[in-house]
Amino acid sequence: MDDSKDPKVKTILDRLRVPEDNPVRRARRVVEAQVPASRRGPGWDRHWRELEAYLDEPGCWSGKADEPDDG
User: I need a labelling partner for 61 at 20 to 30 A (CA). Which of 10, 23, 24, 44 fits?
Assistant: First the structure.
């Protein structure tokens, strides 16, 4: 079977070939290469999708630059 005709393989290959504009998506690929699926919690995908959405959607962040950092 030619893997390039498998839609799942094609999607993965296309993603690897095209540089990602969203830095959260780039970070996710790096992290997922290091963290096995068995170690990822139930909220893993949702967490990443929410972070990606913050950068994909234009708008204002709720925090202000003059607010103290809680960390």
Answer: 44
